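Session log. Operator J.P. requested a structure for one protein chain; no other inputs attached. Running the standard single-chain path with token output.
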Amino acid sequence: MPIEFWQVHDHAGKLIPAPMDLIIRCEGFERKYGGLRYEVRHSRVLNGERYETTRGWEYDHLGLSTRAWQDRRRGGWFFEWTGQRVSKPCRYLIHTDGSVGTDVDGGSPYLPIAPSIPHLIESHALTDTVSMWRPWPMGSLTESAVSLLNGLVEVPEASWRSSRWRLSDTVAVMDYDGGDRDNPRRMTLVWSHGEAGHGQVQAALYGLRGLPDALATLATR
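Structure written below.
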């Protein structure tokens, strides 16, 4: 059935024909990304241990059964899509302004997480690439050490206000806003590649006073 027959609920709960800007955005998503599948490998250090996970992403919507909502704060509309294949309390959403978002708990206002799907995909590509590099412990010490690293260049294709990637040939840094609304803070992840990269991060960490013994031991591995 043509998508022109798609019906959605407006902010008052009334079933109405999908507005044209919503149809155009949904059709554009289907043409460019419909059926896209990939896995993103993640690596990081938590409590002194390295953890590796793999998350699958699927770029699909449900056709005429796709749910959509009016955005009364930002204007426009947003609709749901499959996104990351994990058990989660939130939906993945696409706004008529082109941004990618979520509603956090399945009932909150629209929260943008990336300015566009290409930005999200580029960030995933970098996350997967550096998963094979050496991750370093998170924390305020790591955040401070980043300021001592030279040669880092921002990657605009994979960066936005709440998430930023910086790279050199041997070091990668990604800082992002944590998802805890009650305790908002900026998180920093660091990876290094090859002896030159390992040495650069290690030197930055040792250049700071009060380096914990556990971190020093990890840095020499």
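Operator note: The chain is about 25% helix and 30% strand.
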